Amino acid sequence: MERLESLCHLFDQDVVEDRWRIIPLTEQTLRRAGDRLSILPSNVFLRAGDAIHLISALEARSDEIWTNDRRLLAAAPHFGLLGRTI
C-alpha cells in the first residue's frame, strides 16, 4: 500500500508541475471519439478508450501523443496526431 501511495504522490506532483494535462471527459468528447472510430480503416485496430485518449489530445490542442502502445501509435495519424515513443 505504501508503494501505491508513493506512486499516487508522484503522479499528483507531475500534474502540479504540468507534465500531465487532465482533460475533462464530456459527452461531446465521447461522441467525437465514436464518430472517428466509425470512419477508421478496417485494418486500424483501436479500443474505445484509446480513441477517447486521442480525441482528448486533439481537444487539448496537442499535435502529438506519447505512448508505448503500438496500436495507439498506428492510429494517431488517423486523428491528425504524431505518435511518439521513447
Quick summary of this structure?
The protein has helices at residues 2-16, 27-39, 48-59, 70-75; strands spanning 64-66, 82-84. The chain has 86 residues and is mainly α.
Physical arrangement of strands within the biggest beta sheet: 1-2
Strand content: 5-15%
Radius of gyration: 15 Å
Average residue pLDDT: 92
The share of residues in helices is: 40-55%
Give me the secondary-structure category.
mainly alpha
Helix count? 4
The run of helices and strands is: HHHEHE
Shape: globular
Overall number of strands: 2
Number of domains: 1
> How would a crystallographer describe the biggest sheet?
2 strands, parallel
Distance, first to last CA: 29 Å
Low-pLDDT parts are none
Question: Can you tag this structure with a few keywords?
Answer:
53% helix; 86 residues; 4 helices; two-stranded parallel sheet; 2 strands; mainly alpha
Layout: helices, strands, pairs:
Blueprint (H helix, E strand, L loop, with lengths): L1 H15 L10 H13 L8 H12 L4 E3 L3 H6 L6 E3 L2
Parallel strand pairs: 1-2
Helix pairs in contact: 2-3
Describe the structure.
- The chain is mainly alpha-helical.
- It has one domain.
- It is 53% helix and 7% strand.
- It contains four helices and two strands, in the order αααβαβ.
- It has a two-stranded parallel ribbon with strand order 1-2.
- β1, α4 and β2 form a beta-alpha-beta unit.
- The radius of gyration is 15 Å and the shape is globular.
- The mean pLDDT is 92.
